[in-house]
């Protein structure tokens, strides 16, 4: 056990809770991982159990009294205002007591952490498309403005959910004869497990006398989608890449529209002549998807002087922000060290 | 107790279960009413309890063995195909056993019953806009084709849910400065109880030193909407009439678009030169709303020779259909007698 100063960086999402314990020089002393820890989605008690597990793991062999600052980024499309009190935060406060961490804890929107995960600049903007979609403007490493992030029912335009829903609607229209044929129909049907993906293991069991099952209808698609929570539609988003790679015009039109929505969301919080960095976050924008390609193209046209960078590891970014809040802004060397190994997701 | 023949007509919805017991001459012998009885929304067991209660009420003082036929219309935007087995129907079958009704029971989509509630013609079409939206073509008093009815997440275009969501989006855009000012903003805010409806009882309690609460933001609207099930948005639909009465252009544009959607849904199942009747059903179309007015105008242009009639009492229509299925088509006199008193909703 050492007695050097430490900070903790946490990336708390709906499916995983990740923690890094690092020194002021950016050296990792501990890492922890547990299941989802978002109190809004899971309830404060269940979230607190995950938090405690991940933090205890990260602090194994370390002295909790050495922790000088904690930054915790919380998923939810940037719903939490910068520096706000956490809803249901009493359960989290009890966790810090129980593990012996007595320093200040900053709860921050995941969109701000994603910005820091892309750049060490104090000012700039972020556009995120994962399950949801949001854009923020950042000033002095705090969230200054926000656009969209309004959730799947009333917003999140251009998000993974939005893409999945549009793809199902395109498949339904094709099946009903209301819209053009599209490669998305077969992809969506397979993905919703409404039929076997082509000739597979089961084909041997099909005797010649077994009539093939009737092809799925639009109504079958509706039933399959409605059997799950709406946000499960985001799982279909990667199919868009497959259809666009084949030059499917329906898929390309959906990708175009998503990119326009995301660029419009960003434009709401970013002036036309701004040269500060733009961070791209969320799986739709950090992977080489048709939507990411189109968004990058629009950004180059609209903000030719801006650096466009992807968001990297959120837990490392939270740790970086914790260091910046208790001392000088970490040097590029420290930043590189922090981000050199991705935190296990 | 008499021993004349009887039929039962049932209108089973999400919020009420209504039953009529009538003679072949259309004379009411009994009526029953209970809470919602839709097995899909409420579960088969709870639905069966409501069904038993309403049927027992309707059969008070009557001999269940005299019931020759039952037609039961089931809410759900026409999801149930004409004559199909009811999902979870075993619980309903036990109800019929327990009350001593041994005759055949036809489970029918509510859209077909609504058609029969508008006309005694064997053929025609129906367009419905309530919480959901659907159109059907009817042949030989059975559902022949259906369009939309795909539920709030993937369809129901022009429905009460659709209107409510569009009105909230218009209010959010106005609050964010992304869209034009509209009377809908204040109406939606009041309806979501985000502020007092003007100076009211509470104003006396407000001392001059109390600062007024900050005006609601788009984000407050999102939070209020997300705190309820999505279909609760349909409750906002009547506000559109208020805003359209004031000539609000944003509200009028929403009404225009809803009417276009509903006309398109109907056109999918109805040929251009058809002269059979068109039945309007659901609260958005049977009340004098801006959407109903626009839909009627489009129907007059597109099908000038068609009679356009509103759907009346569903329980009476189900009883009428039950009579038509075991004997000659009831005379206009019998029909008038059946529909003369609305079944208590």
| Overall morphology of chain A | globular
The end-to-end span of chain A amounts to 27 Å
Major sheet strand order of chain A: 3-2-1-4-5
CATH class of the largest domain in chain A: Alpha Beta
What is the chains' assembly state? homodimer
Mean pLDDT of chain A: 89
Look at the helices and sheets of chain A and give the structural class.
alpha/beta
β-strand amount of chain A: 15-25%
Low-confidence stretches of chain A: 199-204
Radius of gyration of chain A: 22 Å
Largest interface (CB within 8 Å) is between:
A-B, 20 and 21 residues
**Could you give a short account of the major beta sheet of chain A?**
5 strands, mixed
The count of domains of chain A is 2
Per CATH, the architecture of the largest domain in chain A is 2-Layer Sandwich
Number of helices of chain A: 14
Which superfamily, in CATH terms, is the homologous superfamily of the largest domain in chain A?
Answer: ATPase, nucleotide binding domain
> How many individual β-strands of chain A?
10
